[in-house]
Amino acid sequence: MTADVPGRTGLSLSDLAMVPVRLAMSFIDAPLRWVQKTFGLGGMATFFLLPNMLIFGIFVLLPFFINFAYSMTGGTALFLPDRSFVGTDQYARLFDCANYLDPNSCVEDTFWTAVGNTGWFVVLQVTLMIGFSLVTALILNRDLRARSFWRAVFFFPVLLSPVVVGLIWKWILQRQGLLNFGLFSFGFEPHVWLNDRTWSFAATVGVSIWAHMGFYTLIILAGLQAIPKDLYEAAEMDGTRTSRVFLRITLPLLMPNLLVVIVLVLIRAVQIFDEVYVLTGGGPGTSTLYLTQYIYETGFATQLRNPGLAAAASILMGVVLVVLTLLQLGLSRPSEKKGSRK
Amino acid sequence: MTKTRTMLAAFAVGLMTSTAAIAGEVRIMWYSDGVEGEVLKDLVDRFMKENPDINVVIDNVSYSVVREQLPVQLEAGDGPDIARVTNLKALSKHWLDLRPLVADGAYWDKNFGDQADWMRPDGSNQISGFMTQITVAGGFANKTLFVQAGVAIPAKDATWDDWAKAAKQVAESQQVPFPMALDRSGHRLSGPNISYGANYIGADGKPAPIDEGSKAFISKFVGWVEDGTMSKDVWVSAAGSTYRAAADDFINGQVAFYYSGSWQVPNFSTKIGSNFDWVATGSPCGPATCTGMPGGAGLVAIKYTKNPTDVAKVMDYLAREEVVKEFSERTLFLPAHKGVVEKGLDFKTDDAQAKAALGVFVTSTTSLSDLARKLPGWHWSDTVYGALVTRVSQAAAGEMKLDEAFTRIDADIAAKVKDSGL
Question: Which residues constitute the signal peptide according to the record (chain B) (predicted)?
Answer without folding.
Answer: 1-23
